[in-house]
Amino acid sequence: VGSAKRPGEFDLIRRYFAPLAAATPAALGLGDDVAILTPHAGQELVVTTDALVAGIHFLPDDPPANIARKMLRVNLSDLAAKGAVPVGYLMTCAFDGSVDEAWVAGFCSGLAADQAEFGIGLLGGDTISTPGPLTFSVTALGEVPAGRALRRKAAKAGDLVFVSGTLGDSALGLKRLRGGLSRLSSEEGAFLVDRYHLPQPRLQLGRALLETGLSKAGLDISDGLIADLGHVGEESGLAAEIDCRSLPVSSAAKHALDRDPGLIADIVAGGDDYELLFTAPGTAATALAELGHRLELKVTAVGRMIETGPRPPGEVRLLDAEGREIALERRGWQHF
Amino acid sequence: VGSAKRPGEFDLIRRYFAPLAAATPAALGLGDDVAILTPHAGQELVVTTDALVAGIHFLPDDPPANIARKMLRVNLSDLAAKGAVPVGYLMTCAFDGSVDEAWVAGFCSGLAADQAEFGIGLLGGDTISTPGPLTFSVTALGEVPAGRALRRKAAKAGDLVFVSGTLGDSALGLKRLRGGLSRLSSEEGAFLVDRYHLPQPRLQLGRALLETGLSKAGLDISDGLIADLGHVGEESGLAAEIDCRSLPVSSAAKHALDRDPGLIADIVAGGDDYELLFTAPGTAATALAELGHRLELKVTAVGRMIETGPRPPGEVRLLDAEGREIALERRGWQHF
Q: ipTM of the predicted structure?
């Protein structure tokens, strides 16, 4: 099923994909339709899957190496949030007519770079042609000590809510790519665009949270802080409050916010952050600050988990400096 | 990201997908972005992935329950070929604008039916919107005793080549769906179309081959007998010969062949068979016949593995009644 511009499936596998599996015995050299895996003693396998479509999760003219790396990192971020050590991934690629051999070569160079960075290998996959947009699906596998994975449902009332890194950069980077935020400097713009293209799965932090036991409850922020904190609340039977003043933002995002305070919606609801969100008792705050310092990664308390009261679990209230709720309607916002 | 006709992602998950995961603790209720799995003692995990696109792997107006079942069965067939016992699956669904709630309900009813039939559960997934064709990707997981999986590379020169069931029904069923083979009876047509819609993963046979040790080398026929036997040859460093007279065909396919002998190309190269192809020494033939009898599944010797001679491994020669090679050009064919 090759196109005029692209070698057939078996040639693509031999030339480009098999080398990505060569160092991973579990992949069986991609010669067997399956991978065969055994977790190490005392470990469980953590498995996650995500799909990406051109025009929705990435831009069709993004460099193919960036698309590849973002695709992997989105999945590795899910493993990070559980405290897992990544092992490898399976991938299905639906290539449209725009994909030629150079594109595949660039895509695979991105995969190779991130395989080396994160110590993972390609375990298997399927390559097909599609008349529609370029579409990928990745299944990533990792290991956690049995019974120790961080869970969404483990938050307790009174726990503080922490996030890693800074929020909203990716959403603002996408705005910049689309021609917005024109008053930012080129350095600031490039920083935000890079954050959009290249999420940083917080694997070391997630693993340290599991090993230290400082947090039992976490996830990665893909839908946005409000929505994902809502998921923790739903699973834990709680509500949550966020202090608007505490939100960690990059200096580029801060400059953008100074000019247009309405961009707060992108900070808390833009999504695509791939930072970790986790809960811990206030007594853990000092140890978490030290952990962040050791990992050279900002760790910020942004709010707390509270009892739901009469309303259903999962509600998340964003509070301003005076403790008044900031109402967010979809991606917009307004004060009461 | 719901459409006007369809509930949003979280509602779809709650109403339709979470029930499919309810009986599978490893799925964590679909509430955690990941599944957590531990193989049983002494077992390895076998993992495989396949993607399907509307218009290529199924017809857009196929009943959604059929699409769901075929999608699962294509992946279960890969597990069957390794001798694995299936455990569960992860699934990404890229829904286009044609998918409304009734479609999702039908699709999930097909998944539920096959989960019950094959003893598996939904482990996780991702649901997204696409402007392009309906696209699915499934990652299926199963277990095999450590080190015992059937492999493509384990064929030996002199081994006989066996296939399960009958070949070509699915390719002919697709022809019939597209208006061809009009001289077949409606019963014959319905039989072939059913074979196209609903592959039968040969899980019991694959497992029995592993447990009895009668075969070490197998795969499932998805690309067609010629192509897939070529894969066994490539991985095993061998060539193969097929005796055209021995090919097992259904009575419907036989009637079609009687009218148009050119349809032999669909029998050996049409693909989508999802029957098992495996190799075994001639001394195993009687035991394999008994096994087939016990499983009420036709098991037929169709050829043998041979040394490659001067040519590269993977060559497959199709021989006629006089031992002359039948040359197949793509999906067509011609005698020398």
A: 0.89
